[in-house]
Design a protein that fits this description.
12 strands, 21% strand, 10 helices, single chain, 293 residues, D-Maltodextrin-Binding Protein, domain 2, Arc Repressor Mutant, subunit A, alpha/beta, three-stranded antiparallel β-sheet
């Protein structure tokens, strides 16, 4: 099996027409057909259904196309990184993050990188835990910054910081540290919370907290984005609970109380793919240096 075979297979899989595929790769149709047959014989699976006039991918073909694309992308990344290492360049990394990480660690980290490793390019993608995990596993992201996440077994992680939760209400609520006794007082309030995504840690932690305080929250709005939740609270639409650092740099008509006695904490973690640890170690060291991991 060669890289050219994989690339040609992907082209045929995209257009689902051998004649059109030959126009893109400039080889004769019989030669392309033989090449695909050799590939199928080597894999021991039929990739295309040719039983009708229209060529279609089999279920095995759909899977193999996705994997072949991933292999080609990884090869291109490896070639690019090899050249960067040879030239002594810092390279490029991509980081997926939840919105609260932008309020806490990311700006400071980028500032330090900009002054100490100015030729390191960093791409950012904001998303949910699930999206970030999927993209790390697919090698579309190098790192993730997510809170209290139950990561898949394929992913390694390190704690970046821990902080207290805060209860946040609209500005017209009578909330202050002196009179606040327990979350249970807000059991009947309208709540704005992240979606309940089973197996991803953060939302499960919140619901354990509510259960421990004897209530099930009445959810009026769901959003995975911390800044969206805060702006909905600002609009008087409900209350929320979030990590303290999510309030950094915001000027909103809200009140909050830090839940210092709550044993559960927000735990922001740096995530990366286990099998890429050796490849990414120099960047992990950068995080360790600038984030005090």
């Amino acid at each position: 099996m060669t890289i050219d075979q994989l690339k040609n297979f992907i082209i045929v899989a995209d257009v689902l027409n051998f004649r059109k595929a030959t126009e893109k790769i400039y080889i004769a149709q019989p030669a392309l057909s033989r090449q695909i047959q050799v590939l199928e014989n080597e894999i021991k699976a039929q990739l295309f259904d040719r039983s009708k006039k229209q060529v279609k991918l089999t279920a095995a073909g759909v899977y193999f196309k996705n994997e072949a694309q991933r292999i080609i992308e990884q090869l291109e990344q490896a070639k690019k990184r090899t050249v960067q290492i040879y030239k002594g360049e810092a390279g490029e990394i991509t980081i997926g993050h939840v919105s609260s990480a932008m309020q806490s660690v990311i700006p400071g980290f980028l500032k330090k990188i900009q002054t100490t490793v100015p030729d390191l390019k960093i791409g950012l993608l904001e998303g949910t835990n699930r999206l970030i995990f999927n993209k790390i596993n697919n090698r579309e992201l190098d790192f993730g910054l997510v809170p209290n996440a139950a990561a898949p077994a394929t992913i390694n992680s390190s704690v970046v910081y821990k902080e207290n939760f805060v209860l946040i209400t609209p500005g017209n609520y009578k909330l202050n540290k002196r009179t606040f006794k327990s979350l249970k007082e807000y059991g009947g309030a309208n709540w704005i919370l992240p979606p309940q995504i089973e197996g991803h840690g953060y939302s499960e932690l919140l619901y354990r907290i509510f259960q421990d305080h004897g209530f099930i929250p009445n959810i009026v709005y769901e959003s995975p984005n911390a800044s969206t939740a805060l702006r909905l609270v600002n609009a008087g639409l409900g209350v929320t609970i979030i990590g303290k650092s999510a309030l950094n740099g915001l000027d909103l008509d809200i009140k909050y109380v830090e839940l210092e006695k709550l044993s559960e904490k927000v735990e922001m973690r740096l995530m990366w793919l286990k099998e890429r640890e050796n490849e990414l170690k120099e960047y992990i060291h950068l995080f360790q240096k600038f984030l005090s991991l």
